[in-house]
Design a protein that fits this description.
binds nicotinamide-adenine-dinucleotide, 291 residues, alpha/beta, 14% strand, globular, 10 strands, eight-stranded mixed β-sheet, 46% helix
Length: 291
Amino acid sequence: MSIDTIGVVGAGQMGNGIAHACALAGYPVVLVDVSQEQLDRALQSIGKNLDRQVSREHIDAAAKDAALERITTSTDNGRLADAGLVIEAVPEREDLKRKIYESLAATLKPEALIVSNTSSISITRLASATDRPGKFMGMHFFNPVPVMKLVELIRGMATEEATYEAVAEVTRKLGKTPAMAVDSAGFIVNRILLPMINEAVFALFEGVASVEDIDAAMKHGAAHPMGPLQLADFIGLDTCLSIMQVLHNDLGDPKYRPCPLLLRYVEAGWLGRKSGRGFYDYAGDEPVPTR
Ligand code: NAD
């Protein structure tokens, strides 16, 4: 099963990065969104991010131009009729994703594959909302997509071997490293990373150490590129909380209990970098710890 054109549904933070990576790897891409404004913004971001790759000499100007030419945008799902693979990257709401799969059923070729970039919804459950559970699986990219090498590939209960192989091949053609996971909450990275971040918040909550010392300890003692609280601010504290809630609810183990201090920060609207304040305050030139 070889994939030619790739459709991407949802032109937000992840969708524009996915379209960028696919076009740069040589795939014609049809990028679809309900909002023309989002499509315009996505094309702008892709252009800017490709420029950055040119200025760092990761690609040349001809590769940038060719990639941009391979991307077409539309607000009409009907334009996905030629796609061999559709990557769904709309907001993390199951009802919305289900509605999109319904509309894709009327549009796509019967042999077309559908993957979801969901971070937390069961792939098996999403598959059951499509007309082709055997041709559906999870393809979980990391932000920023053009930079991050990992793609988690998640098989649902019904995913056929040929589907998995075809999506793994696309992943490799994108220059990414696939890691296979079963359909379980948090897959691999979030299952391991978020409990570590949550534990760092517990350490702060219990007065074990300050924000700065927790981050310095993990940077210099465990060789992490950034401390866990700094990383939490990057991810967004609301996103961290919701992933911990999914792990806690789905796996039912009290070890995944979200730290009450994490909940307080989210309730305060201190969501990290995106709101200007989280475990650090970003108002000045240098981030300042908020505790
Ligand atoms: P986002 O809000 O930035 O973008 C979503 C886009 O989908 C928006 O442009 C929106 O206009 C569009 N959209 C909404 N309804 C639509 C519809 N019916 N048809 C077509 N487009 C529609 O969201 P995001 O951060 O890019 O996340 C998308 C998915 O990727 C989610 O499932 C999320 O869990 C997952 N994910 C996010 C990250 C991350 O770091 N942000 C990482 C991995 C996976």
